[in-house]
Amino acid sequence: MAIDQGPPTADNPWPVALLGAKMRDWIDRLGTAWVEGEITQWNVAGGNVYGKLKDVEVDATVSFSIWSSVRARVPSDLRQGARVVAAVKPNYWVKGGTLTMQVVEMKHVGLGDLLERLERLRATLAAEGLFDPARKRPLPFLPHRIGLVTGRDSDAEKDVLRNAQLRWPQVEFRTVHAAVQGDRAVAEVTAAIQELDADPDVDVIIVARGGGDFQNLLGFSDEGLVRAAAAATTPIVSAIGHEADRPLLDEVADLRASTPTDAAKRVVPDVADELANVRQARARLGLRLSHTLSVEADRIAALRSRPALASTAWLVDTRAEELARDLSRSRELLERRLERGHAEVGHLTGRLRALSPRDTLRRGYAIVQRPDGTVVRSSADVATPTEVRVTLGAGTAAGTITADGAGPGGTDPVADDATAAA
C-alpha cells in the first residue's frame, strides 16, 4: 500500500485501497448510533437477517444486517412494517466497496406510520362490508376471455399465460400492461381494472405481480385502487404473490391466489381433467342406466310370472261364470215378475168383468133404446106402437112395442111382433 504523503493530486493519486482504508477508518470513528425507522424489508438467510430501514418522514433508506449471534437478542416478532429503534454500527467493506449498518440491538417502538394507516383503512373497509364473503362473486366455469393486469414482460405475465394455455389451449386473454410498483402503479392499475371491467367480453380479471417487499406492495393497498376493485362488476382475482403481508386488494378481491401460477390454475379449468370427468360421468350414467333397466326388467318378469298374468283365460272364465249366474238370476226374476203380472192382470180382468154391463146382459137382461138412443127405463117412457132397439148379451135386435102395460099393479107389456134383427 502506498504511504500517505499528503493530499492526493493528479500527479500523486491515492491507490483505491488507501482511499478505502481512510473511509473505513473515518467511518469506524463514528461508533454506534441509535436510529429510528420502519422496516421495509426483512429477509432471513443462513441464520442472518438482511433488511432495509426507512425514515418515517422523508424518503431515505439504509440497508442493515443482523448477524446470527445478535439475532437471538432481538424480538422474534419483528417483521416488515414494524417501527423500531436500532443501535447500528456503520461498517465499510474495503474489498467490496460497500457500506452496511451492523445492528447491535433492535427493539419495537410501535406500529409504523404506514402499517398504522393500513390497519385503520383495513378496519374502515371491513366496517363498510367490502371484505364480506357474501359479496364475493363466483368465477365462471370457463371464461370466454380473461383480462390480465400486470407489468410488461414480467415473469407474472409469462406464468399466467403459459399455465392457462397448458390447461386450456383455446383460452383468450386481453392483457393491459401497467406499472406494478412505484409512483405510477396505483393510477395505472386502477385504470386497467376499470378498462377491463367495461369490456363486455371479459369474464374475469387477474391482477398479477410476482411478489415483492412490503414497500413495493403498498400500491395494492391504496384506498382508491381497492374501491375501484370493489366497484367492478367483473370478478377479480388478486395474484400479488405475497404471503407475509396481505395487501388490501387480496381482501376485496373475489378470489385470492397465492401466486400468478395459482391464479391461472384457479381461473382456467384443465381440459384433460374435464374430459376425464366427462368420461367418468358418462360411465357412471351408463352403469346407473343399465342397473335401472335391469331392475325394471326383473320387476316386469316378476309381474308376468304371477298367476294373474301367467294365464289370461282365468279372466274370461271367471267373468263367464259370473255372467251365467247373473243371466240365470235375471231370468228367474223376470219369470217371477211376469207371473205376478199375469196374476194381477187376471185379478183385475175378473173385477172388470164383474162390473161390466155386458156380463149383466149375458145373464138375460137387455137394454131397450128408443130410436133417438135414449134408454127406456119404464113403460110410461114409450107410446104404442114404438120402434125400439134392444141390446142383448150377444148382439142386438129391433122391435116394436104394440101394447101398453096394464098400469100400476098390472103386468109388463109384451112385444108380440118383435122381430129379431141380427
List the keywords:
five-stranded parallel sheet; OB fold (Dihydrolipoamide Acetyltransferase, E2P); 3 domains; disordered C terminus; 13 strands; Rossmann fold; 422 residues; alpha/beta; five-stranded mixed β-barrel
Question: How would you describe the overall organization of this protein?
Answer:
A 5-stranded mixed beta barrel has the order 1-2-3-5-4. Strands 7-6-8-9-10 form a 5-stranded parallel beta sheet, sandwiched between helices. It has a 3-stranded antiparallel beta sheet with strand order 11-12-13, with no helix packed on it. The chain folds into 3 domains: 96 residues, OB fold (Dihydrolipoamide Acetyltransferase, E2P) (Beta Barrel), CATH 2.40.50.140; 153 residues, Rossmann fold (3-Layer(aba) Sandwich), CATH 3.40.50; 67 residues, no CATH class. The protein is built from 12 helices and 13 strands. The protein is rod-shaped and about 210 Å long. The protein has 422 residues and is α/β, with parallel strands linked by helices. Helices cover 40% and strands 21% of the residues.
What shape does the CA trace take? rod-shaped
The N- and C-terminal alpha carbons lie at a distance of 192 Å
CA radius of gyration: 65 Å
Order of helices and strands: HEEEHEEHEHEHEHEHEHHHHHEEE
The poorly predicted ranges are 406-422
Question: Briefly, what is this?
Answer:
The chain is an alpha/beta fold.
Helix and strand topology:
Layout: H1 16-28, E1 33-45, E2 48-54, E3 61-66, H2 68-71, E4 82-93, E5 98-111, H3 113-127, E6 145-150, H4 155-167, E7 172-177, H5 185-197, E8 204-208, H6 223-231, E9 236-239, H7 248-252, E10 255-256, H8 260-267, H9 271-305, H10 307-310, H11 313-355, H12 357-362, E11 367-369, E12 386-391, E13 396-401
Parallel strand pairs: 3-5, 6-7, 6-8, 8-9, 9-10
Antiparallel strand pairs: 1-2, 1-4, 2-3, 4-5, 11-12, 12-13
